Amino acid sequence: VFTRRGVDRILRYAFELAQNRPRKTLTSATKSNGLAISMPYWDERVEAMAAHYPEIRWDKQHIDILCARFVMQPERFDVVVASNLFGDILSDLGPACTGT
What we know:
Blueprint: H1 4-19, E1 25-30, H2 38-50, E2 57-62, H3 63-72, E3 79-81, H4 84-98
Helix pairs in contact: 1-2, 3-4
């Protein structure tokens, strides 16, 4: 279950982190074409939060292609923000790619 307070708290942390990094980029993991209620809400909150951080370049990527790009082009990412479900997938994928 997503709450506005919870989602905004996570997103604010991610945007603040991106703001303090040299690249100032953020990618949001989504699957709004498959999870028809929760992920469109997540995407809406990302867009609303992004309005408060105009200096951050951000995009959203569906989790399936994001995982492929994580493996094939890891250098394209800096800060990635995700729900617990997608964050769990990505936190396992990253170390597997680096052999750690």
